Amino acid sequence: MYKVLIIEDDAMIGDMVTMYLSEEGFHVIRKANGAEGIAAVSPFDPDVILLDLMLPDMDGLALCRQVRETSKIPIMIVSMKSKVVERVNALGAGADDYMCKPFSMHEMSARVHALIRRSNLYLKSSVNTRQVTEAAGGSTTAVLEAVLDIDKKITLNPNTRSMRVHGVLVETTYSEFEIMKCFVNHPGRVYSREDLLQTVRGFDCLVTDRAIDVHIANLRKKIEDNPKEPKWIRTVWGVGYKFVY
Q: Which residues, by range, are in coiled-coil regions (predicted)?
């Protein structure tokens, strides 16, 4: 049984979502404020977190960042805020999806299923990669390593879902890691926004290609010496992006 943690202070919305997801077979608990929500993450170990931005005791974005510091659990923001800048800020804080209130329960459930499905694919991919590595005598995951020059490199470890830049560990969100995996595995290939969108979100989540631009901007901040003049993640005008080294 998959588990969903709802951090929502509105009792009516929280109870409706809890009841709907419970009827679909999820194990759901709801916390009414940020402190209780954060305290529940580790012991409950949810498969997805549904997070409201406006909580009585703390800002939802701050909570999202705090969870993301120690966990890669998929986070979906559920909020009355509908402006593009608010969606952008949420993605920048580490959220994986965003829904505006009021919303369709059916769509909300579909997105929860999609987030869990992609998270499980991560785990399956990590296990398969580890098995291949062991069969090869413990060799490193060279397929996910792109050497940028003699002493500078970006390395992705699919087992720990971690990225190192010049040997320094850099935290990434689910979507950022998947985008970098595409880039590192296929340097020089031009990816359209739609290509990357399907890679990180699948076919059943209603998101826009603006989300990809946000993830690219965040990645540039993490790997580029000068994000405003990127050397590695290049824009291909009118098409999308490519990784150059």
A: none
Tokens of 178: 């998947």
End-to-end CA separation in angstroms for the chain: 44
Q: Is 160 helix (H, G, I), strand (E, B) or coil?
A: coil
Nearest to 234 by CA among 222, 221, 220: 220
∠ Cα 95 228 142 (to 5°) = 65
Q: How far apart are CA 91 and CA 207, in angstroms?
A: 12
Taken in order 237, 199, 93, 188, the sign of the CA dihedral is negative
C-alpha angle 60-15-89 in degrees, rounded to nearest 5? 20
CB 163 within 8 A of CB 156: yes
User: With 0-12 CB in 10 A as exposed, 13-18 as middle and 19+ as buried, what is 81?
Assistant: middle
Q: Are 68 and 93 in contact (CB under 8 A)?
A: yes
CB 106, CB 230: distance < 8 Å: no
For residue range 19-57, list pLDDT tens digits in order. 999 988 899 999 999 999 999 999 999 999 999 999 999
Dihedral of CA atoms 27, 33, 37, 40 in degrees, nearest 10, equals -80
- What are 100's two structure tokens? 């505006």
Cα(235)–Cα(224) distance, integer angstroms: 13
Most distant CA pair in the chain, distance: 58
pTM above 0.85, yes or no: no
**Cβ density class 117-128: b for 16+ within 10 Å, e for less:** ebbeebeeeeee
